[in-house]
Amino acid sequence: MPAPSIDTVRSWQGRTMVDPAGDKLGTIAAIYLDDDTGQPEWATVTTGLFGSKQTFVPLTHAQATGDSVQVPYDKQQVKNAPNMQADGQLSQDEEAELYRHYGLDYTESRSDSGLPAGTAGQDVDPRGRDRDGVQDTAVGRDISGPTTDDAMTRSEEELRVGTETRERGRARLRKFVVTEQQQVTVPVQREEVRVEREPITDANLDAASGPDISEEEHEVTLHEETPVVEKRVVPRERVRLDKETVTDQRQVGEEVRKEQIEVDDQDQLGRQDQR
Question: Is the domain 6-135 a CATH 1.10.40.30 member?
């Protein structure tokens, strides 16, 4: 498998490097190029507590797998790799020691794999020359983007918050029947018997004359009203569903990263030590 191209590895910085089993080896911190071919040859991977150690891993057989970069070296092999200073340059002796550790063939002559003929593994793009055609000797240049000037750009993430509409539930109207007892007072009339007595006088004697003493019966029919109940369906109201929009205030939170720049001035530190 050929080594990946520069265009490919530009997106690898900051990604996680994993071994064949998928175990995390560390985070890719920098890419080192062959100073003759300009092809990616090594990657430094931050390992150890708080990423305090940087280990060199060959990129010859590296390949992207999802969001990670996989290499054919297990976690223990990378952990036991020789400790080289990631100062922008590897000497021939350092590179030879690393090749022996990873079981790769090393030669000081130029090869198809991009091995250097002289001092190798510099983190320098050989195409970056000045106007006189002289090789730019800057050490540790970032290959994730073109070098434009002597300034470093500091970036940070910021939150961009919006809203999206989703279904939160449904409401429906359902009609059902319940039974309740109602009491209604209704006025009713009834007839009752009232006995009226009229004395016999000389004025009404002729009208009141009757037969001789005998037994008689006189009957009167009495009437009364009784409540009569009937039911009918009467519409009372119309019920419908409507929607209204209510605005709430909600807080959202997310972690954001930002870059910080510090100055490591060795000359200044030396002057302080002499005081």
Answer: no
CB 252 within 8 A of CB 161: yes
| 4: exposed, middle or buried (Cβ count in 10 Å: 0-12, 13-18, 19+) | buried
pLDDT at residue 188 tops 90? yes
Structure tokens at 244: 């209204």
The Cα 29–Cα 19 span in angstroms is 17
| Long-range contacts formed by 90-99: CB under 8 A, 24+ apart | 90/32, 90/42, 90/56, 90/119, 90/120, 90/121, 90/122, 91/119, 92/116, 92/118, 92/119, 92/120, 94/121, 95/120, 95/121, 98/42, 98/56, 98/58, 99/58
The angle formed by the CA atoms of residues 108, 110 and 116, to the nearest 5 degrees, is 65
Q: What is the mean pLDDT of residues 15-23?
A: 92
Question: Mean pLDDT for the chain?
Answer: 77
Residues 215-269: tens digit of each pLDDT: 888 899 999 999 999 999 999 899 898 989 999 898 888 888 888 888 876 565 5
CA-nearest of 87, 150, 146 to 119 is 87
Which of the 8 DSSP states describes residue 49?
Answer: G
Angstrom distance (rounded) from CA 270 to CA 275: 9
- What gap in Å lies between CA 81 and CA 55, rounded to an integer? 7
E-state strands within 59-181: 63-65, 68-70
**Per-residue pLDDT, 48:** 65
